[in-house]
Amino acid sequence: MNRTCLHSALCAVHSALLLLALGCAGSHEEQDRQVVVFKHGKLAGDERAFGALLREFEQRHPGLTVRDELLPSSTDQQHQFYAINLEDRYVPFDLFAVDIIWVQEFARAGWIRSLDEHVPKAARSAFFPAAIEAATFEDALYAVPWYLDAGVLFYRRDLLERYGVAPPRTWSELIDSTERILEGEGDPRLKGFIWTGKQYEGLVCVALEFIWGRGGTLFAEETGPTQTHAADALAFMRELITSGVSPALVTTADEETARHLFGDGRAVYMRNWPYAWSLLQEQDSQVRARVGLTRLPAFSGRESVAALGGWLLAIPRTARHPEAAAELLRFLVSSDVQRRMAIQLGYKPAYQHLYQDPDLLRVQPWLTDLYPVYESARPRQVSPYYLILSQLVQPELSAALVGRKSPQQALQTARRQIAAALAHRSTDPAQGGAGDQPVGGEQSGVSTSPSPRGYLKPGRASPLGVTIMSHSHVSGYMGRDLRMREAD
Amino acid sequence: MANASRPSPFPPQSGLARPRVKLTEQVWAPVLASPALLLIMLFALGPIVGTFWLAFHRHLPIFQVYEFIGLRNFSRLLTDERFWSACGTTFYFTVVSVALELLLGLIIALLLHGPLSGQHRSASTMQTDAGGRMREWRVKDWIGVVILLPWIVPTVVSARIWEWLYHPEYGLLNYFLVKVGLVQEPINWLGDPISALHGAILMDVWKATPFVAILLLAALRAIPQDLYLAARVDGAGPWATFRQVTLPLLLPVILIVLTFRTMDAFRVFDAVYVLTGGGPGNSTETLSIYAYKTLFQMLQFGYGSALACAMFGLISLVTAAYLLLLRRQLQA
Known about the structure:
The structure holds 2 protein chains of 2 kinds.
Chain A: H1 2-30, E1 35-41, H2 47-60, E2 65-71, H3 75-86, E3 95-99, H4 103-109, H5 121-124, H6 129-135, E4 136-137, E5 140-141, E6 144-150, E7 152-156, H7 157-162, H8 171-185, E8 191-194, H9 201-213, H10 225-242, H11 255-263, E9 267-272, H12 275-280, E10 291-294, E11 307-314, H13 322-332, H14 335-345, H15 358-363, H16 367-376, E12 378-379, H17 386-401, H18 407-421, H19 423-427, H20 458-469, H21 473-487
Parallel strand pairs in A: 1-2, 1-3, 8-9, 11-12
Antiparallel strand pairs in A: 3-11, 4-5, 6-11, 7-9, 7-10
Helix pairs in contact in A: 9-10, 9-17, 17-18, 20-21
Chain B: H1 2-5, H2 17-55, E1 57-60, E2 65-68, H3 72-79, H4 81-113, H5 123-128, H6 130-152, H7 155-165, H8 172-180, H9 193-222, H10 225-233, H11 238-266, H12 270-276, H13 287-297, H14 301-331
């Protein structure tokens, strides 16, 4: 046993060294050929279609080669990768895809470049305004929308027709029709309304849609009516589960769990992102041509609200080939490429005018319905603090869903946690942190910080940076960080 | 100098030979040990010291905050309900899973050593019949491999396997329970705070029991047979033999196994993280998951390091307690 262990360990080391050697050789060779490294998560759909797009770019720009590098599809893992690598003096990629909720954080950290010179203000109005708002930090644009997502309701058209039910406009219509259909079908395997209630970012999106739809806010610091509305919304979500409209499994479901279940024809309604549409229409899908898509229901007397998601393209501040990266960025966010990505890969464009595009509508006629959803979709808290806020709120939302805490308790704990995590802003106003507004103003919450970089005292940092450098990877990268800041 | 020592009839007493040996040892020992020491300093001590250093700071790379704040991260720990809840979860996870692993591991080891091993047959057949012995070894090896499988599978892979086993709609576990009629409705194992934590414990037990069993099996094989013969001569039954002979002789290894397993279970990360991500409602969030989320998702390097340090302190305490016990055991 031991010998095999040792042997395989040696093999692993050997192959790692080999890879390292190959990698070094590769990068030497490529230095004069201008390689643009494009880093992004795995795309759904046909890989060749996207590869063809990149080859087309290379043909148009003879001096450039694009190296397409994939990260795991898990958003959290991607964030971790970028957070660690972007601190570095040399970033091993030139262009990368950012989740809409990272832009403020990365811009605040000084990790990505302002793209003002590449995308003039006039050109920005072609995109959905909410996406541009999320990508704007201190009046400068830091990322350009690549494709967008917004929460929508999928329904089983065949089932709804069989029971003479119209796609629900309000939540009470959805509950009534679910109960009618489940009772009428009498199939224990058929579930009602499924959504993503696992303890992760997807839950925050769904919860925000309920909370906003109810007129509440999730991240407000002060107590007040908006907090009561938020508690009501959470209680409503819990009730969906206890009443059986939503199966208990939603508390562990993410997008893919929900999509698989719905795709197997085992649910009447599903809240998901539009990406699921193309997958549900594939040849081997059991619900092919039996699915409808509409905007999320509303609470009576209120508007339906969808959370805005999506991915943007950004260029690291320390990118090696920023000009070439900007070329590729301009190509990838062009309306022509976004139209083709919509047709071939199912990603929804960020340009408003594409939702009236005849070519696109011929293939996906329901995009007309999607336009008002995207137009009114709200970005999550536009703040560099968003990832902290979300991480603190996720467990509390989940606790409220499984009945571990009452909605009020959960929201109170979340507020306490947020206050503790952001304590330095109120306790150390002299540190210059008071200008950052992490919370409040959920709709318009662009940070208004006048001086973002008032924190560091370089004199104290320098000896530390040097001593810690040699010790470990983590603290080493911290040391580099400090040296870099000093150089600023 | 060497000449003076040669005629001496008592070389060990020679005044010259000893200091020379001592001298070389004194010179060579640190030199030979230095690579190892250097590596330990670099890869173990360095990061630990670095983490402790960070824990005294507020370090938020996003906001370019880096300032010394003394013990304030630790005082925040004391009032952090999420920290205490993670502590509780970690302790519960550790105690229950390690206890079960030890119990099951011991049973499996005893079975492998006794009824399943074929070792109780007479020694002469084992020696003369080479072919038979080969066959016996092969059977035993197969059992060993099968038993070890869970330990061999990478944790992330086995966590994914168990995630599917527990799946409310497609999971094998629910399928059997419904088929047998034990439950009416499929249960969402990982969606309920209590069953999610126990689901994670079960997976850990499944995974780590082989490790315990193999170590205990080795210890069992090291117990001299004549002690058992003597016990039989004294008329001891199986239970008395186990209590008076096997268990006392196993105890040092049990303590070592416990130390390893407790440390591992206390630091559990990948198994639970893949299985539940800490949910639902943080009911399965262990200390290392909380530290990971604080460090790498919230990017609060100072506070996250304080969490890691607290964890380090707690593990050190537990390990020290085990080592004390072990030393007392070995001295007795």
